[in-house]
Specification:
about 130 residues, mainly beta, Immunoglobulin-like, four-stranded antiparallel β-sheet, 9 strands
Length: about 130
């Protein structure tokens, strides 16, 4: 599990390889990622936006940004934990992701970035 804390907000990431799929006559490798966001600060915060860089080992980089995560903009009180899962498709067997969430302090309206540590996406190694 990969973890990082920014301004009292802890991000933990797990990944899973989910096989392959064909789209538009191209083979893609499917990966799921599981995110846990834990508020270890003394402030009430809300996740407002996300920004991802998805790297494929074929030198393809995809940028994904938008409001919230999986259709939600969760509010986290101190000690609250929010979890969600999502996924991505790569054209190669290996890649990585990193990014950040924009969070807002509910009392002061201050916005700040909470960094998502770089995590690897790879298919299982086959052995003879």
């Amino acid at each position: 599990m990969i973890q990082q804390i920014t301004k009292g907000i802890k991000i933990s990431v797990k990944t899973k390889y989910n096989g392959t799929s064909y789209r538009n006559n191209r083979l893609y490798y499917i990966f799921a990622y599981f995110i846990t966001i834990e508020n270890k600060s003394s402030e009430i915060v809300q996740l407002t936006d996300r920004f991802w860089k998805i790297f494929d080992s074929l030198n393809i980089t995809e940028i994904v940004k938008g409001e919230g995560v999986v259709g939600q903009t969760p509010v986290l009180r101190p000690k609250d934990v929010y979890t969600y899962s999502s996924g991505c498709f790569l054209e190669s067997k290996m890649g990585a992701m990193k990014g950040y969430y924009t969070m807002k302090n509910i009392k002061t309206f201050e916005e700040f970035k909470v960094f998502i540590p770089t995590f690897q996406l790879s298919t299982p190694i086959l052995s003879n």
